[in-house]
Write a structure and sequence with these properties.
65 residues; mainly alpha; 2 helices; 0% strand; transmembrane
Length: 65
């Protein structure tokens, strides 16, 4: 029993939201336009929208515990 080690990895939700926003907007842009420039533009727009979401829409509330 003592040999079992529990790993409590801290997951960074900000990085996950930024990554998913960028990837999904790039995928939507490639489906909509079908060009490489559309993918790049979609990735940039997705990153900007994800940053706005993380900073303004999803506030960082302090924990009470």
């Amino acid at each position: 029993m003592e040999n079992q080690v529990e790993k409590n990895a801290n997951v960074n939700p900000t990085a996950i939201i930024l990554l998913l926003g960028t990837i999904f907007f790039a995928l939507m842009a490639v489906i909509a336009s079908g060009t490489i420039l559309g993918v790049i533009t979609g990735a940039i727009v997705g990153l900007v929208i994800a940053i706005i979401f993380v900073n303004f829409i999803l506030p960082h509330k302090p924990h009470d515990r």
